Structure formats: C-alpha cells, structure tokens
Amino acid sequence: MAVKHEYDHMKKAIADCHVLINTTSVGMSPHIDSSPLDRELLTPSLTVCDAVYNPRKTRLLKDAEEMGCTTVEGLKMLVNQGAEAFEIWTGIKAPAELMLKAISK
C-alpha cells in the first residue's frame, strides 16, 4: 500500500499547486517515453516546466499539453539562464531570442 499512499500524497500536493517543475533527467534522451509522473495528475490549471531539453518536447510536456496545461520547455529555460549569466558577467543585455534560434538549429 505504500505506492498507493505515495500516489495519493502526490495527487493532493499537485492539486494545491499552480506550477510544476521537473528538474530530474527523467524523459531525457534516450529514455524519451518516460515521465516523472502520471498524466492523470495533470490539471489544466497547472503550468508545467521541464528542465530537460533533449528532446525539446518531453513525454511530460506532451502529456501536459494534452491535459490542457501551459508548458515551458527546457531549452527556453537553458537559454534564459545563459542569457541572465551573460548579463550578470558582462553588463550587456544578452540577445536571448538570437541565442534560442542558434541553439535550436
């Protein structure tokens, strides 16, 4: 019954959230069919972010979109983190859109 208890606990925790962020490697290539949680736990009121950027659209993000959630992919998170670091170190505004375009190729 430990698994059922953990599932129920996770379901309640997610029900109280507005943003869910996956920072694990679950879903990263080559394990692209893996997701850190069951799609049934996703509700349309959630914004789901996945730090995994290979593949760009993970199983978690696909499931979240299908369940009506807003999604944020890992590549955008990676680029924005890099842009912020660039600005901190150089004092120059980073061209985040250009960076995203370059890394997307």
Number of helices: 4
Tell me the β content.
5-15%
Please name the CATH topology of the largest domain.
Rossmann fold
Rg, Å, rounded: 16 Å
Would you report the number of β strands? 3
* Unreliable spans: none
Oligomer: single chain
Report the major sheet.
3 strands, parallel
- Termini, distance in Å? 47 Å
Which structural class fits the helix and strand makeup?
Answer: mainly alpha
Keywords:
Rossmann fold, 46% helix, mainly alpha, elongated, three-stranded parallel beta sheet, 105 residues
Write up what this structure looks like:
The protein has a three-stranded parallel sheet. Helix content is 46%, strand content 10%. The chain has 105 residues and is mostly helical. The longest helix has 17 residues. The model has no long low-confidence stretch (mean pLDDT 93). It is built from four helices and three strands; from the N terminus they run αββαβαα. Strand 2, helix 2 and strand 3 form a beta-alpha-beta unit. Its EC number is 1.1.1.25. InterPro entries: NAD(P)-bd_dom_sf (IPR036291), SDH_C (IPR041121), Shikimate_DH_fam (IPR022893). This is Shikimate dehydrogenase (NADP(+)).
Describe the structure concisely for a colleague.
With 105 residues, the protein is mostly helical.
Write the layout of secondary structure elements.
Layout: H1 2-15, E1 19-22, E2 47-50, H2 59-66, E3 70-72, H3 74-90, H4 96-104
Parallel strand pairs: 1-2, 2-3
Helix pairs in contact: 3-4
